[in-house]
Structure formats: structure tokens, C-alpha cells
Design a protein that fits this description.
Chain lengths: 237, 237
Amino acid sequence: MNAGKQTKGERTKSLILETAMTLFQEKGYDESTMRNIAERAGVALGNAYYYFPSKEHFIHAFYERLWNEQLLAYEGVLEAESTLKRRLLGVLVAELRIIEPHHRLCLALFKSAADPRSPVSPFSEESRPLRESCIDFYRRLVEGATETIPPELKRELPYLLWLFHMGVVLFWIYDRSFGSIRTQKLVLHSADLIGNLVTLMSVPVMSPIRQRILNLIAAVKTEFLDETLPPLNPSQS
Amino acid sequence: MNAGKQTKGERTKSLILETAMTLFQEKGYDESTMRNIAERAGVALGNAYYYFPSKEHFIHAFYERLWNEQLLAYEGVLEAESTLKRRLLGVLVAELRIIEPHHRLCLALFKSAADPRSPVSPFSEESRPLRESCIDFYRRLVEGATETIPPELKRELPYLLWLFHMGVVLFWIYDRSFGSIRTQKLVLHSADLIGNLVTLMSVPVMSPIRQRILNLIAAVKTEFLDETLPPLNPSQS
DNA sequence: GTCTATAACCGGATAGAC
DNA sequence: GTCTATCCGGTTATAGAC
């Protein structure tokens, strides 16, 4: 295990990965067969499966790249903006900018990602590190915001914003408008609305409603977070 | 075309459909191969494909059965309940009761249904009749409710409730709690909350927030409804 | 138009030899 | 680690029978 140089296996693995990514970008996910990838990478089919047990395993690698790129852009937003409203808006706009070039690919991946049993589901055990890193980021976004936020709500907000962001991505996947303008509008309007709603929850009259909302969250929240989903049993039900 | 008796073709078709449904129920969707279905129905593989051009085509038939059963139960709720809150709660509880026995099957179907390009997506052109029938039902639910609802909001509410109901089903699909208790809690809390929020929107102070919400809806709404999605091109991207 | 039988294609996945 | 051969299941094609 020399630290500087990659082992042969590592080189083969990243060769296959790069080839897959290029091919996905060129021809889309469904059109890129495992045989294509292996052939183009100059390895045997079985060898590709040796490093990537299923075609879906390429997806996690793609996630991680995207997330690194996003995190980089998000840090800039947190430094530049101070209100919750503008931080949220900035982050969502940055996200859209980054993922838009991959719209077609994401549409194809979504078929796998939507399956709760798949390891590439955003709610899977395998996605936990990425998911927690993402919620953690929203925690920092909320902590640094200047608005007055009821503390019980503030505690839940990172999780809620993460969930909301998942909803935006879901909407974006289905969005066929030119340049995803519709999703951009959604982001614009809803960042604004969320900012208003959050501060509105501070006024005393809203106390009962706030409590109801918090109760709802408490009753329902653990889903996707605390529980361990059983691993995907390749072909089941 | 004699009205009373089915033609031979109709009989064969429903024989195949029944067999498929039974098999799905017994072994799950992925485990039931087209070869299984054909064999069990006592027809040739090609004959199954003659009536059901793809495996997914069985899904629409399944949808329709479920929706008929639901509609029947829902009518009873509308007759028995008068407030928006209780009507909504009654309908959602009835829905959960009806779909719960098919949890495993729905989980498997979801992989296809989640793909926006698939004809079995709830947002597809092929699903339009079912979708509109469902939104129409929510229209009647809202029309008959006794609460005072701001008219501009009332106009949008059927669509919003349909969307919300889709969200509940999505949550349910991911819900692994025993007997889907967590989804039941979600339904209980959120029907209550929605009832409160809707009437809250009538009070004058809420006017600006209400307007913001309506603007958001207007900016974003047409998605899934007015546009024609291109048909699924079997293997694309 | 309805149906059978059979073979074949394609692509994800696996087994087992080297 | 890497290969070849094979399985499996959705899907298609063909050619012909009723």
C-alpha cells in the first residue's frame, strides 16, 4: 500500500468509472450498457462487475462528485448572505445551476433512486453519509441566519429544509419547461415564502399553529433518518 | 358484438389479467415473469403480449380497480361528513385502508410509476383520465365543505389537495412502520392542520401571506396538468 | 382477428476457470 | 483481478393454425 501511487486495481477501477461517466454523458444512462462501458474501458464485462457490483453503483460515485461541487458553491453563499431567506434562495439557485447540465441523466437515474429498496435511494443506508452531510449543511445555513426563529422550530428547520430541497429536486426532475424556468420560479417564490412563514411563527398568535406543526413533525419525523432500512435484496416483490 | 356475452378475446384478456393480479399478489411483481403469467393462464407467451403490450400495462388495470374501490368508499365519507377537516381525514383514512393490503405490490410498481417518462406515471398522458377523475373528486369534497374559505384559495384547493394526497401516498410507500402507523399519524395530524390553515387564511391579517401562496401556485401550477408529455420512447437516456 | 409454438435478441447479472 | 461462458427475463419476430 504505497501512499503516492495507485495500485493496479485502483487504476482499473477509476478507469472504468471515468469511462462510465463519459458514456453516460454522451449517450445517457439507459443507452450505456455494461458491455459498452467494459468494452470502451478495454476490460472484460466481468471485470467491470468486479469493481461495480451493479450498474447502479456508478450512481453513487456521480452523487459524490455533484455534492462536492455543490458544497463548494454553497460555502460562498453562506459567506455572502446573512438572512435565512437569501441564504436559502442562494443555495437553491446554486444547486439548480449545478444540476441543470445533468437533467437528462438525473431523469434516468431517478428511476433507480426513487426505489426505496435501492442503495442509491437518497433515504438508503448507503446514502446516509451524503444525507447527513447535506442536513448538516442546512444546519449551518440556519444557525448563521439573522432572523428571529422560535427555538423549537429552529431545531427542526435543518431537517425540514433538507426535505424541502428534496421536494424541489423532485419537482425539477419532472419539470419539462425550457431551462427549468418553472423550478426557478418555484425556488424564487418559495424561498421568500418560507422566510416569511418562519418569522411569522414567532408572533404569539401563531403559537397554537406552531405547536400543531411541531407535533406533526415529531409524530412523523424519524422516517428516513433513524431507522435502518434493510439492504436491497436484488429481485424482491 | 353482443352486449351480454364477452367475445372470446375479451375472455382471454381478462383471464390473463386475473392471472397476473393473482400472481403479483402471491409472489410480487418482479418475481412474476411474463412467462409465468402466460403459463399459469394457459396461453402462449406471445398471446399475453398480444393483449398486454408490456408488463407495465398490467399496472394501469390495477390502478383502475383500486380507484373504483376508493371512489365507492369516498362517497360514503362525503355523505357522512360536512367539514373540510373531517371529509379530508375520512377520505385519507379510507384510502390507507384500501391500499394497505397492496403495500408490497405498490412498492414494486413505484419503480415504474416514479419514472416521468413511463405511461404508468400518475402524471403521464395515459393517466390523465384517472388523474382528472381524482382531482374532480377533491373538487366535490371542497365544494361541499362548510368552512368559510377565501374564494381564490377555494378554486385552487382541489388541485392542492390532490397533490397533497400524492405526497401522502409517496410517504406511505416509503413508510416501513408496522401497519403504516406513521402514515396514519401523518394523515391525522395533517388533515387537522390543513383544516386550520385554510380557515386561518380567511382572517384579514393573513391576506399578504395568502397572496404570496397563490402567486407561488400560479407560477408553478401548470406542471403535470396542462402540458402534454411526449410518449415513452422505450429505451431513452 | 385470435392464438400457438418456437426461436431469437438484448442487456443486467453471475459462475467459475485461469 | 481478469476473463469467458452462461443464466435469466423482458421483449420481439416469425410462421403458421383456426
